[in-house]
Amino acid sequence: MALIACGQFSATNDVLANLKICRSLAARAAAAGAKALFLPEASDYISSSPAEGLTLLPQSTTLFLPGLCLAASTHSLSIIAGIHAPSSSPDLVRNTLVYISTTGLVSHSYNKLHLFDITLPSLTLRESASTEAGSSITPPIATPFGRLGLQICFDLRFPETARALVNQGAEILAYPSAFTVPTGRAHWEVLLRARAVEGQCYVVAAAQGGRHNEKRVSWGGAMVVSPWGEVLGRCKEGEEAGEPEICLAEVDLGLVHRVRVECPLRRRTDVYAEL
């Protein structure tokens, strides 16, 4: 059994202010006895435009990430956080998830595969205009609380990548996110619970929640889901989201094993090949 913390806050374009919040959440998680803290997608900053984002990127690299690493080592806490990272193009960034060990070192990272391009009556977002898509799945990471598979936000809508990670041994899937309000209200919880049930694994979804700027608001609702699809802990959602908070949950790898034994999912790959 291992206690983990799932965090939520509303990042802005103030990188140092965001770092202060994340370090506060790390202190709260450690004080509660958690072994790991999961932080949202884009914890370093959410900008009002791609151009502004590029100007903030150096602060993420030189200030935000080292600050998180210091928090991890100070509290002997694993930290899993979404950040922006340099890409192969000077006009783009990478939407990246990093795993920081209890010694304060970034040991693994993952670049978001599926980019979020959407047009709504009240909002247009084209992540591909500012972000370089990832090109591979990071194999599950051996951690003190289980084998962890890394995904980010819009990846949640693609069960194929979750299945690939589970097939490689993942016992926990991370989905740090910044869901919009309309999509969050409609699909956030049901998708998270579906990935947990399908994969017979824990799902940990740290989330952005509340207003970031005049243009953008996130749904919130950070949560931890068990391999049986039960919501073990959650943060506020919708209009109530915004204040920094954590929810706590116990990860029991024995439950992962029991669910997989008691409800075996035998795939008819011979039939699939014909489709």
TrEMBL record:
<dbReference type="GO" id="GO:0016811">
    <property type="term" value="F:hydrolase activity, acting on carbon-nitrogen (but not peptide) bonds, in linear amides"/>
</dbReference>
<feature type="domain" description="CN hydrolase">
    <location>
        <begin position="2"/>
        <end position="253"/>
    </location>
</feature>
<protein>
    <submittedName>
        <fullName>Similar to Probable hydrolase nit2 acc. no. O94660</fullName>
    </submittedName>
</protein>
<dbReference type="InterPro" id="IPR036526">
    <property type="entry name" value="C-N_Hydrolase_sf"/>
</dbReference>
<dbReference type="Pfam" id="PF00795">
    <property type="entry name" value="CN_hydrolase"/>
</dbReference>
<dbReference type="InterPro" id="IPR003010">
    <property type="entry name" value="C-N_Hydrolase"/>
</dbReference>
<dbReference type="InterPro" id="IPR045254">
    <property type="entry name" value="Nit1/2_C-N_Hydrolase"/>
</dbReference>
<keyword id="KW-0378">Hydrolase</keyword>
